[in-house]
Each structure stands twice: as structure tokens, then as C-alpha cells.
């Protein structure tokens, strides 16, 4: 088999066989296929696409390129959730405890932030003592006892994906639906997940900016799951403004804890209950979505979800006083109010700009080597649809720099205004099962 034949075949719009895809993934992972030939095939895929069957085969080949995590020692039907990345997205800290509170095991492998989207592990490490580096044995034990564990990906998981993603990044082939879907799903499946709810973001702060693109990605990932015998539900949710009011690390933990204690932040509450309900039904805890939603909503209000959150944090070494007394979480030196220069209504908040402003403050990373400052971030004081007057505070920057001019400019520029109230912002656009 020759790589040039595969390139030519895909260039001509034909489907690759299972053997051809396996040959490519194995050869490139092992270093037998050079970058220039792999790049040529990726570009051919970018222009000609892949069938659902091809994409599923590519996904499985990337899973098989390295280690996989065996979660068979965990009792019950394990569920997981994955977000394609957003700004202010702290739903894992609400959904995980919610689902655990009804006895469903949640075994979640998470990553760190890069660019304008925050990382789950970075946020959890804002809690003093929290340990995301669990051994496999400890991870399984925690899920069996507390029904929830969140840890960093360890071992040699999907090495083919790591190599291919690096190549896609420098060859302008990142935004290909089959390549994105296989990349996301290979990592999830290598982590041992059989039941997954995907939170596919759409809008200005998402990787997929249009609803059409987001729906295509959701359908592709659902098709991969079907082809590989996994249960997948995809929720397409809005990222045209940040989720909730807090962006950063400690302040996102604070907002999640407040919601688990009963505070109503509508967009976060709606999305968290939606995803958690699908997870509970997939695991067999409830026979239908409406019953699951009702029971989970009760556990938000009666404190059971917060108790599950505390147990999970304590089990992984975190100081629970930090989430019981939220003022003890890391805090920045300066709190800088950004004022409106107009009267009217907030018509839009560019989520990506808010995320980049938080990154400039130190809440995120421009490169993988950057250090995270857990105390800095942004608090939104207005959301889309809110009325504003001239010189009213629209957001607060929490900074260790007294004059973070670039971040202030970026945050202020994220807000758009209109004379008339805009249409109500949607939280959930579509659910694909």
C-alpha cells in the first residue's frame, strides 16, 4: 500500500477503506509517513470530506493508536459529558454533582485551558489542595464511592490525534467537520466512555460560529457514536455571550457553588439541567427526560447536589471551606469597573472578546507554558437584553495589575448596544439524539 495512492483516491472524492485509514494512522503515528504526505491527505479530506463510516473508522483508529482506559470496575452505567469549549462554561461543576446526587456514576477526564476558553482542571485547582492527578485506581475508587471524579488525562491516550492536530494547526485544516469530530470523539472514547452527552457550542465564543456548522458537527459526532456502538446525545447550546456572569477560575467556581446552593442564574441553570437530565436517562436512572429534569431540579433546591459537590472536592484533596465560605477563594488585588458609554439595551456580548480579555488578565493561557492566575477574571454586570444607562457599570475586571489597559479595551468592546430591546437570547438551540 502506498500513501500517494490514498492521497490521489481522496483527492478524487472516493471513500477510503478501513485498511487504508488504518495504514495512514499507524504509519503517521509511528513516523513512517512524512508530514508532507499526511498534510496532503488532510487537505484532500478538508476539500472532499469523509463519509460517516470513514469518520468512525478514523476515530477508532486514533483510539487504538495508544492506551485506553478500562472503567469496567466502576459499578453502574457510567456517563460523561463533553463541551466543545466556551466562555464562562462552568457547567461541569454543576452537572457532575447533580447527576452524582441521583446515584449515577460520572467519570470525567478533563483538560486545561488554552486561548479564550477556560480549562476545567485550572478552575478546580483554584480550590486549595484540589488534586487532579489521580491514579487509575484512585479515580475508579472515587467514582464508586462518591459517584464523581474529575482528573487530567494521563497515559498515552490517542497519540495519533495529538500528532494530527498539531499538523492540522499549521496546515489550515483545523476546521474540517470529519477531522474535528474524530479528534473530539477519539479522546472521549479512549477515556472509556460509552454514554456521552455532547455540549456543542455555537456562536461568537465557540469554535463553530454558525448554527449550521454546529449542527453538522453534532450530527457527525452522533453518527460516530452510532457506528461504534456508543450512546450519544448532542445538545447545541448558545455561546453568543458568556455563560452566567463570571469568567475566570476562582470566580467560576464561586458561581457554580452558588447555583448548587440554590441561586438562580437562568442560562447556566437551564443548560445544566438539560444536560444532566439526558445523562440520567442514558444511565437508566429515570425512564424519561421530564421525570429526570423534575428530580434533578429538586436536588438543586434541597442541597443534595451541593453535598455531592463537597464530597467530590474533599475526596480529591480540596479544602471544602473554600466552597462553603466563597470569599476565601483566591481574589485579585484590583476590581476595575467598566462603564457604558451609551443609553439603551445590551444587544450582544462578544463572548470571544470577553474570554480574550480574561486571558490578558492572566485567567487563561496564550501558550501552553503560561501560568494561570486563579484570582483574576471578569464579572458581567449586564447580559444581553438588559437596559443600561450612560456610565452604568457593565462589567468588572478583577486584576493584579492596576491598569490593564488592553484587557479593559477588549472587555468594553465586547458589548454592543441598541435603542430597542433585542429578541430574548436562546440557551438551547437543538437536541440531537
Task: Please explain how this structure is put together.
- Pfam families: Glycos_trans_3N, Glycos_transf_3, PYNP_C.
- Belongs to the thymidine/pyrimidine-nucleoside phosphorylase family.
- It is a single chain.
- With 433 residues, the chain is α/β, with parallel strands linked by helices.
- The protein has three domains: 3-49, Transferase, Pyrimidine Nucleoside Phosphorylase, Chain C (Transferase, Pyrimidine Nucleoside Phosphorylase, Chain A, domain 3, Up-down Bundle), CATH 1.20.970.10; 80-324, 3-Layer(aba) Sandwich (Pyrimidine Nucleoside Phosphorylase, Chain A, domain 2), CATH 3.40.1030; 331-418, Pyrimidine nucleoside phosphorylase-like, C-terminal domain (Aldehyde Oxidoreductase, domain 3).
- The chain has helices at residues 3-11, 18-30, 35-48, 52-63, 92-100, 120-124, 136-146, 159-170, 177-190, 211-227, 250-260, 266-282, 289-301, 304-315, 321-324, 351-361, 405-413, and strands at residues 80-83, 106-110, 148-152, 195-202, 231-238, 246-248, 334-339, 344-349, 377-380, 387-388, 393-399, 415-418, 428-432.
- Helix 2 (18-30) packs across helix 8, helix 5 (92-100) packs across helix 12 and helix 9 packs across helix 10.
